[in-house]
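User: For this week's homework, look closely at the record that follows, marking any run of repeated tokens, and judge whether sequence predicts the tokens.
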Amino acid sequence: MSDLIWQPRLEYRNDSTIYQFKTYVEQNYSRSFSNYDEFWQWSVDELADFWTSIYCYFDIQSHSPYESVLKTSSQGFIGNEWFKGATINYAEHIFRRHTQERPAVIYKSENAVVKEVSWDDLAFQVQAIQQFLIKKGVRKGDRIAGLLNNTVETLAIFLAVNAIGAIWSCCSTDFGIASVVERFEVIEPKILFADKDYSYNGKVYDKRDAATEIKNHVPSLRDVVLVHGDIWQTIWNEVDTSMPLYFVPVAFDHPIWILYSSGTTGKPKAITHSSGGNLIEHFKAMALHQNVQTGDRFMWYSTTGWMMWNYALASLLVGATLCIYDGSPVFPERTSMWKFAAEQKINHIGAGATYFTSCHDLDLKILSMDLKTIGSTGSPLPPDTSRWLQHQFVDTQIVSLSGGTDVCSAFLSGNALLPVYAGEIQCRTLGAKVVAYNEAGVAVYDEVGELVIEEPMPSMPLYFWKDEDNRKYQESYFEKYPGVWCHGDWIRITSHNNGVIIYGRSDATLNRGGVRIGTAEVYNVLSTFEEIEDSLVICIDGKDGSAVMPLYIKMKAGVKLDDVLRVEIKQRLRSTYSPRHVPDQIVEVPDIPYTMSGKKLEIPVKKIMMGIPIARAVSIDVVKNPAALDFWLMADKQFS
């Protein structure tokens, strides 16, 4: 059993939004739940009642009544209609929180001082951009694209786009030109907003030529607006202050934004999300499972190309101040982002799991931070990192999340009613019927299985843009277990707490003598070595039926991998898990390759080592550090 590292205090538990919501449900639905498991079971058995309770509890404002909560489709999960008849606007719900009592946004970049933005200031920016869009002929349903940094201006652009019912889509400024074109040419946007440059680790990268090049290759683009460029300045010069900011009501299933799959091994899928589905899910996820409350300060370190940027907007929905840190979190010093959080008295901080693992040697107690939660996602948070974080922040709830671009939220998340165990996610979220299936499609508990979702959720994609007959949508989630969403992760639902342990992507599974091993188990052990900075493990199948499992290690600066450490790694993997976890080779590499959203390139590396040309193995434009692949490109392809 995993180590218990945190228990909610009675006061924390009773003050939490999830506790207050449970009380609301019990009173209004004549129910009594003795524990969270019973509450969760009700939420997935009685979907209509549950989602109605969320709709009412968070006072979702519709401009027209809905006819039914869920009208199911003949295609299973695809084509379901939620709250048919309701007309809403996401940005309108954000501006319901307009107040003079606290800032809307607190912004800091690696090369600029902290800036507070009031709700009045934010509303003015959105008002001005909205008027510009209308003058340009932008209407409900049009696509507007961004190549933007995580800034206040980006937030204002999105809110203006959303306010008039247009559809948002954004790539981060560190994306390559071909990668951006590949995404935007599919959705055919009318206008591109672009930042002129971006800063990272003290270096400035000019993006003006990239914006021009993108316009040349995406025929639908009528205009490119450089933030702080000439056209941008006219927006503020021509704003009509007598024309108020207004919000166009859209159908519950009207698209809000288009996100993209990673595209590491093929063309990225344009995942189209619904306005109402994301609105209702974000209220639930942010308020109930992350315990973000009115007056809190929330920050999630993200670029605009990761769905966590979209998810972080939900903090504004629930009355928090959105705190933004743009640039490198370790520049000009390794504690730069932590210091920003401490100085601004941030209550909730989130980032990718790899960032927290990289902080192991820091002493953060000296910052005297009073955090309610620390959020982690992108990859499983190793047990050793969980313990380290808890030691640094004794009273703070560690909230590990898992979900993704597919739902623009998390279906495994935190819970202020439950304890935290190292290396485990606390719970399956309300309304998300997550189950582990074995190969026969039978639900299993306390056993590793495939993560599936047996019932639909409002935030599941409407469709993939230009996906004829929903063919790619069907192939992506419903081929393995017909009629059931298969997400592609190995998980175990624990018997002691119904928490969830993630073992990695099922398509990156290590097969050792017929026994499946999740890569996360190997990484968990390696995170306990102070000498090791990062690692990647794959299992390569030979044409003759043989297989080999190499482990690639990136050492910390000034440390070399030697035979003594190799022996220690093997011994610790064997004693912690099993002999099958012991690699056949342990090889030192200069760097470990990642996607832009912080996921290790296990499958592309495996393909390269099996002799597949790099053009077919991975799309270089979505690799965060493409030079890291050079080691494998030059390696002997012994299994090709």
The longest strand covers residues 76-84.
